[in-house]
């Protein structure tokens, strides 16, 4: 028997390296934007979730600075003890107004929002149905709840019906979980149909709008708005860290739901409140979403242009593109070794993309995210790089 209780860690790391699963950070200098600097090299940034380009917006930065000067650098405690500030409630009201719900509650991250909400809503006597492609925070929140968890095939409404017909009667409550925009594929869930099924079988439905908020809908309220489901009986979770350029998560819904979460969501009750800077940045970003629909329009123009370029590119590139209805475009690559080589090749050509591989996704892919601040020349450079690297 080994005398070193930590020796297995190095063995595990070697296994991760052999499987091409090893990950490391890369230091990005300067402000976020369509062009970033890594190790002294300027790279066109197609790897960011800053869809509207607000993380580096001077107005959002100024709002964060002003809040820090007024309230200090940290909330200093949980919201129920010493961490609550007037600006927290302002942000929650702004989110509720954007999402057209009665109220909202802000968590210190989107991950905490999912863990806290799911584990508060269901327990050991309950059932969760979860899309197989859901984000890890939804899956881990489901496990943490102690409920029975059944996965259904991605986007399979008939599969949801089948599971409910077979199992719903055996459980006290049922919660259906789905992303609205799937972050590693770029497609949308069939939300109206899933919601119809939830209503028929008396189920709660929680949707993750992390990649929808600020991006979809006439008002930028998200995929729920875009898919015509505003005002219907569902729970909307989302994040401030993507299109809104800040940090934090939220849940929006009815007033009784939000009041319940303030009293039962452990990841809200026992966590220090969101920092004043992040809170103010989120509030400032929502104001820009409300006031500048042209920014959203520019994002979708860029998405359309890049899709057109990819469709017109050589067959070996165009045929790899997964179906997408969002600013997330993914190209299939055979294996982890190849996707890493393509990612490094693009980096050498001055382009930063996501080289995504197992275990994050079942199959390797190049993940491209489009921003409102990209220029046509940026898109053209990306496609040229892909054509030179994906020739067969």
From TrEMBL:
Where would one find coiled-coil regions in this protein?
Answer: none
- Sorted alphabetically, which keywords does the UniProt record give? Acyltransferase, Biotin biosynthesis, Pyridoxal phosphate, Transferase
Per its UniProt record, the required cofactor names are: pyridoxal 5'-phosphate
**Entry's transmembrane regions:** none
What are this entry's molecular-function GO terms? 8-amino-7-oxononanoate synthase activity
Q: What does it catalyze?
A: 6-carboxyhexanoyl-[ACP] + L-alanine + H(+) = (8S)-8-amino-7-oxononanoate + holo-[ACP] + CO2
Which family, according to the similarity comment?
Belongs to the class-II pyridoxal-phosphate-dependent aminotransferase family. BioF subfamily.
How is the subunit organization of this protein annotated in UniProt? Homodimer.
What does this chain do? Catalyzes the decarboxylative condensation of pimeloyl-[acyl-carrier protein] and L-alanine to produce 8-amino-7-oxononanoate (AON), [acyl-carrier protein], and carbon dioxide.
Cross-referenced PANTHER family: 8-AMINO-7-OXONONANOATE SYNTHASE, CLASS II AMINOTRANSFERASE/8-AMINO-7-OXONONANOATE SYNTHASE
**Protein name, please?**
8-amino-7-ketopelargonate synthase
Q: Which organism is it from?
A: Laspinema olomoucense D3b
Gene from which this protein is expressed: bioF
């Amino acid at each position: 028997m080994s005398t070193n209780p930590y020796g297995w860690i190095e063995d595990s790391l070697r296994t991760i390296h052999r499987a091409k699963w090893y990950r490391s950070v890369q230091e990005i200098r300067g402000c976020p934007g369509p062009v970033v600097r890594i190790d002294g090299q300027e790279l066109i940034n197609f790897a960011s979730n800053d869809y509207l380009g607000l993380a580096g917006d001077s107005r959002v930065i100024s709002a964060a600075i002003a809040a820090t000067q007024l309230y200090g650098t940290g909330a200093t405690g949980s919201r129920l003890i010493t961490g609550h500030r007037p600006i927290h409630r302002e942000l929650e009201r702004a989110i509720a107004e954007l999402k057209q719900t009665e109220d909202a509650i802000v968590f210190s991250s989107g991950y905490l929002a999912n863990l806290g909400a799911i584990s508060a809503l269901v327990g050991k006597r309950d059932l969760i149905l979860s899309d197989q492609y859901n984000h890890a925070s939804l899956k881990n929140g489901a496990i943490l709840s102690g409920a029975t968890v059944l996965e259904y095939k991605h986007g399979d409404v008939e599969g949801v019906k089948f599971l409910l017909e077979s199992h719903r009667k055996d459980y006290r409550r049922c919660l259906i979980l789905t992303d609205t925009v799937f972050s590693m594929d770029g497609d949308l869930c069939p939300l109206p149909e899933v919601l119809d099924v939830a209503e028929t079988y008396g189920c709660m439905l929680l949707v993750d709008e992390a990649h929808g908020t600020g991006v979809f809908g006439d008002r930028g309220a998200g995929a729920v708005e875009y898919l015509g489901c505003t005002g219907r009986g569902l729970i909307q979770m989302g994040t401030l860290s993507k299109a809104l350029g800040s940090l934090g998560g939220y849940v929006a819904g009815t007033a009784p739901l939000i009041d319940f979460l303030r009293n039962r969501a452990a990841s809200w009750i026992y966590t220090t409140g969101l920092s004043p800077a992040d809170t103010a940045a989120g509030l400032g970003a929502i104001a820009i979403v409300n006031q500048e629909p042209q920014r959203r329009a520019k994002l979708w123009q860029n998405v359309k242009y890049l899709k057109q370029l990819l469709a017109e590119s050589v067959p070996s590139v165009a045929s790899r593109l997964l179906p997408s209805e969002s600013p997330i475009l993914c190209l299939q690559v055979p294996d982890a070794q190849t996707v890493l080589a393509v990612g490094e090749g693009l980096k050498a050509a001055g382009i930063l993309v996501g080289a995504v591989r197992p275990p994050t996704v079942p199959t390797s892919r190049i993940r491209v995210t489009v921003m409102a601040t990209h220029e046509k020349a940026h898109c053209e450079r990306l496609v040229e790089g892909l054509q030179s690297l994906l020739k067969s």
